[in-house]
Amino acid sequence: MVVRSAARRLPGLMEAAGFTGVEASAPAVAGWRSAEFEEADRRGVARLARLVDAPVVAVEFLDSDVGFVEATAPDGHRWRALLDRAKAVDYGIPVHEFPVLPAVCAALAWSAAAGLTADEVAVRRALTESAVFTEHLAQDLFAGLGIPQPEAAVG
């Protein structure tokens, strides 16, 4: 599971927000940090966004097959989505509870509220395609949301 946020001291704040098994965050890229975690309580993402006063997006993975996305910005923009809908059906996950169009629209609004520039096509693709490892779809989603990627810092 992974969290992306523009917060400083991300791991400690994640633990305070109810995340467990938090690993040290990767170096910041254009102010955005990434950290991995094992579990989060139901309100963890919203609590973390309030604590850090910064946008947060988290993906919780089910066996690298399905990703549950939740994002919140301090101004209240919230959304959730599902990564790899085809595999989710195989797991018996009710995909109808994660409609794509509202998720794309909300993701674009969240991105704008976070001061990012999203790519609607890339966001939609990440929310509708399948991959061997859902972590790859999560990386595609982060890029589509306009979150600076680690490889952008190289050079």
How is this structure best described in words?
- The protein has helices spanning 10-16, 44-52, 85-90, 100-113, 120-128, 134-145; strands at residues 2-5, 19-20, 33-36, 39-40, 56-62, 66-72, 78-83.
- The model has no long low-confidence stretch (mean pLDDT 88).
- The chain has 155 residues and is α+β, with helices and mostly antiparallel strands.
- The strands form 2 sheets. A 5-stranded antiparallel sheet has the order 3-1-5-6-7. It has a two-stranded antiparallel ribbon with strand order 2-4.
- It has one domain (2-149).
- The protein contains 6 helices and 7 strands; from the N terminus they run E-H-E-E-E-H-E-E-E-H-H-H-H.
- The longest helix is centred in the last third of the chain and has 14 residues, at 100-113.
- The chain starts with a strand and ends in a 10-residue tail after the last helix.
Based on the model shown, name its key terms.
155 residues; five-stranded antiparallel sheet; 6 helices
Give a quick rundown of the structure:
Helices cover 37% and strands 21% of the residues.
What does the secondary structure layout of this molecule look like, with pairings?
Elements lengths: L1 E4 L4 H7 L2 E2 L12 E4 L2 E2 L3 H9 L3 E7 L3 E7 L5 E6 L1 H6 L9 H14 L6 H9 L5 H12 L10
Antiparallel strand pairs: 1-3, 1-5, 2-4, 5-6, 6-7
Helix pairs in contact: 1-2, 4-5, 5-6
